[in-house]
Amino acid sequence: MMDARPPLLTAAQALNLLLEAARAPTVAQTAPTLEANGRVLAADQHSQIDVPGRDNSQMDGYAVRAADCAAMGLPIRLPVSQRIQAGRPGTALAPGSAARIFTGALIPDGADAVVMQEACTVDGDHVVISEAPAPGAWIRRRGEDIRSGSVILPAGTRLRPQHLGLAASVGLAQLPVRPRLRVGVFFTGDELAMPGEALKPGAIYNSNRFLLRGLLENLGCDIVDYGIVPDNLGETRAMLRRAAAAGDLVITCGGVSVGEEDHVKPAVEAEGRLTMWQIAMKPGKPLAFGMVRRDAEGGGIGGEAFFIGLPGNPVSTFVTFLIFVRPFILRLQGVADIAPKTYGMRADFDLPKGDRRNEFLRARINAEGGLDLFPNQGSGVLTSTVWGDGLIDNPPGHAIARGDSVCFMPFSELL
User: Fold this and answer.
1) Which of 31, 136, 281, 353 would bridge 358 by S-S if both were Cys, CB 3.0 to 4.6 A apart?
2) What is the pLDDT of residues 269-284, one digit of tens each?
């Protein structure tokens, strides 16, 4: 009798295995705030100032004492005693007067309300107000956005433009960040050609090279692209050693299945070790994870580089990267929140029979707020990833009927 093969890992089990292996960095660098977009914050950032620093006007209008206005009948007529621009503090407001004030200008001592200019008319050196203001009207209070000493950005934040703006708003010119992850990539297959080259019989263009590099660039990795490696065990082993010596993570595309010309699996087993191979998911069953040995001079994380072998079909490459490689890289970069947001959405289609594996279906949001399914869910149909807005995470054996709620992961959360 033949030994029964162990069951394939579920997608959840595979992701947990990857995340448990990932080690967040402890080294920090300093980056100018202007150049820190996409980097991962290494330490909590505190504000040393209140924002706003003083009470200021939300509107162009007139600063007044609310009690003065309440004591008068409408319309209220007040002499204009001064003109206050942003960046040029005024003097204390005299009782029974108004100050012309502009957005962002400091509220003068004595004033406790602003009347927007749309409720005012000018009569010589007086202003006529048609609405009596309440105390505090149209005033931004000191510290209402940020209090001095508060944490404005926690460690583990992957910095986006709005984070940089917030850091700049409290005067932070530099930020402590984690080093960029060094990722070596190569692509196996004698059939692969590059755009611009003439296609020989049986050849295909290497779309995965462009796909994978773009995905890694979006994550702020330092990429070393070793190009296409022939279907040869010796050359595959040599490239694994070279990539591992220079990087923290080696990613390959293709050659991780069980065919006679699939050399990545035996190459990794010869140069290191595999801890995961094949997942019960569709698309993307042949996904490999392990370690590749390297010389001590290679630097980086310990004496080994992480290895991930992606399947060769382009949709499988795309989906497995989003579901597994993206969170793994984020964890290696020290990102605290790596889980993408998912949404329960209405299926506007029927899927009468679910696959025995966990499916990740390409779907698009329609004008009615439901989801349409791309008609061809094949692992080589790259147009589905451009047509779609995201992935439906469909459990094994789960049929979908029109009107059912499904778990939707937008590409905006995954890219």
Assistant:
1) 281
2) 999 999 988 899 999 8
| Separation CA 292–CA 390 (nearest Å) | 33
Please give the structure tokens belonging to residue 43: 């330490």
Does 116 have pLDDT greater than 90?
Answer: yes
Q: Is 6 exposed, middle or buried (0-12, 13-18, 19+ CB in 10 A)?
A: exposed
Residue type, 317: T
Could you tell me the pTM of the whole model?
A: 0.89
Do residues 54 and 142 make contact, with C-beta atoms less than 8 angstroms apart? yes
Q: Which of 23-27, 151-155, 321-325, 331-335 has the lowest mean pLDDT?
A: 23-27
Does residue 301 have a pLDDT over 80? no
Burial zone of 400 (CB within 10 Å; 0-12 exposed, 13-18 middle, 19+ buried) = buried
pLDDT tier at 295, thresholds 50, 70, 90:
low
List, for residues 60-107, the tens digit of each pLDDT value.
999 999 999 999 989 999 999 999 999 999 999 999 999 999 999 999
